[in-house]
Write a structure and sequence with these properties.
Elements: H1 3-9, H2 14-21, E1 26-27, E2 34-35, H3 36-58, H4 67-86, H5 94-110, H6 118-124, H7 139-172, H8 182-221, H9 230-272
Antiparallel strand pairs: 1-2
Helix pairs in contact: 2-8, 3-5, 4-5, 5-9, 7-8, 7-9, 8-9
């Protein structure tokens, strides 16, 4: 049986069910494979993010604001205040970036709240057998974003200290400028620099991937409902109860993870402007 035929027939057991839901729609093989579902959902939610704020800006009034305008203004003010408390230089670039990160990551995380089998059913209508709907549950997404944050950190490092000052700091901090200490200083600074995108990426990916797995395990509780046994009935109602509780708790997780990713971006940028 081919992969397409196997996907159409549906998973035969819990292992196949989980494997099916963790399989990406991709093109290419190995390092040069592209996860089409991740790219599509990321771009789509990016457009939605821009559209939401464009709508609020276009309909903004100086009088009594609409509920949507008031909400957007509250989010913008909250992010701007947060950035101001951490980053004390010109924030004309960093504050909009932080706002974009927070809203975009939140929307990508929120896709985890969709009914587990719904995206696959919709994709099947178009002849697509695999479709993962949570971009941040894909390490490719989180590492791509974290590498972009690394470029922002380097930008602020060079902007605040100059090319010569930053390179000098790489070789002389924190142990001193003695030539014997240049290599240890550089190695330590390099490890510190590279650990920032790795921690950013793995924290977001790990939390969203684990959350997705929990939803799958909860869904499997009610998988035997059609056998009409007492055990299957308990499993079905257990699925409803646990699914509701986990979904409510997951709202906190997706919001917190978006805030942490945004906040660490600001903190790392602020640290990059400090002189040692």
């Amino acid at each position: 049986m081919s992969a397409a035929e196997h996907a159409t027939a549906g998973p035969a057991n819990s292992t196949e069910y989980i494997t099916h839901h963790l399989t990406h729609l991709k093109v290419g093989e190995g390092f040069w494979s592209f996860h089409v579902d991740t790219i599509f959902m990321s771009v789509l939610l990016g457009i939605v993010t821009l559209g939401l704020f464009y709508t609020a800006a276009r309909k903004a009034t100086v009088g009594v604001p609409s509920k949507w305008q008031a909400f957007v203004e509250m989010v913008v003010e909250f992010i701007d205040t947060t950035v101001k408390e951490v980053f004390h230089l010109d924030r004309s670039f960093l504050a909009p970036l932080a706002l974009t990160i927070f809203v975009w990551v939140f929307l990508m995380n929120a896709m985890d709240l969709l009914p587990l089998d719904l995206p696959g059913k919709v994709a099947a209508l178009f002849g697509i057998h695999y479709w993962r709907v949570v971009p941040t549950a894909d390490a490719n997404t989180t590492f791509a974003m974290s590498l972009t944050v690394l470029l922002v950190v380097l930008f602020y490092s060079f902007k605040a200290k100059g090319a010569g000052g930053y390179i000098h700091e790489l070789f002389t901090a924190p142990f001193g400028s003695n030539p014997v200490l240049w290599i240890p200083n550089f190695v330590l600074n390099l490890v510190e620099l590279l650990s920032k995108p790795v921690s950013l990426a793995m924290r977001l990916f790990g939390n969203m991937y684990a959350g997705e797995l929990v939803f799958m395990l909860i869904a499997l509780l009610g998988a035997g409902v059609f056998t009409l046994t007492v055990g299957s009935a308990f499993g079905f109602f257990g699925q409803l109860a646990m699914g509701a509780v986990w979904a409510i708790f997951h709202i906190l997780i997706i919001t917190l993870q978006a805030f942490i990713f945004m906040m660490l971006t600001v903190v790392y940028s602020a640290m990059a402007t400090e002189h040692h």
